[in-house]
Amino acid sequence: GINTKKKVILFGAIGGTKDIRKGSNLLEKALEILDQSYFDNIQNRFQVLVFGEAKERRFINNLSIDFLGSFCDDISLRIIYSAADVIVVPSIQEAFGQTASEAHSCGTPVAAFNIGGLIDIVDHEKTGYLADPYDPKSLAYGINWIIEDEERNKKLSLQARIKAKEKWEYSIIAKKYISAYYSALGIN
């Protein structure tokens, strides 16, 4: 049901919009700002998808939001991440930001707040956009910045994928774990 003629904005969290720490309320405000400030006919330009929660479709102003439910397998998650033009991670509290790193692994740029572990994942204006913390207007600007220019979006996607391969590929992480264990044991 993903409309390939529309830009896809993705949000995902365990529990979806129910966990206040994940910032779905700030995403809603950012979407309202997008609707009012950047686009005349937002419902014809965007599709908003939410994973991690099953719910019926609902609307913010004229913008439809589709709830996809939860996914337990990597293939479904890869498809969803890869179908998105941007994933929004509006967390108000985030130690690492697994959805952001997973999105990057699938070549999807991230719009997030400039907080916590997201700072280590998203390279501002290189793999995504880091908005002013907790500011829906800044987040709306970042979402728009990522998706308004097709060439920029492609470049951000490529850089996101490159960063994921360089930072989080299994062989790289395994070497870091081995090094940490050796260091903890005092082995050179």
Description:
The chain is an alpha/beta fold and 188 residues long. The protein contains seven helices and seven strands. It is globular, with a radius of gyration of 17 Å.
Secondary structure elements and their pairing?
Layout: E1 7-12, H1 24-37, E2 46-51, E3 58-60, E4 63-69, H2 74-83, E5 86-89, H3 98-105, E6 110-113, H4 118-121, E7 128-131, H5 136-147, H6 150-168, H7 170-185
Parallel strand pairs: 1-2, 1-5, 2-4, 5-6, 6-7
Antiparallel strand pairs: 3-4
Helix pairs in contact: 1-5, 3-6
H/E order of the elements?
Answer: EHEEEHEHEHEHHH
Helicity, as a percent range: 40-55%
Query: How confident is the prediction overall: mean pLDDT?
Result: 91
Strands, total number: 7
For the largest beta-sheet, the strand count, sense and barrel status come to: 7 strands, mixed
* Unreliable stretches covering 5 or more consecutive residues: none
Quaternary form? single chain
Helix/strand/pairing category: alpha/beta
Q: What sort of overall outline do the alpha carbons produce when their principal axes are compared?
A: globular
User: How far is the N terminus from the C terminus?
Assistant: 54 Å
Q: What is the C-alpha radius of gyration, as a whole number of Å?
A: 17 Å
Our count of helices gives 7
Main sheet strand line-up? 3-4-2-1-5-6-7
Strand content: 15-25%
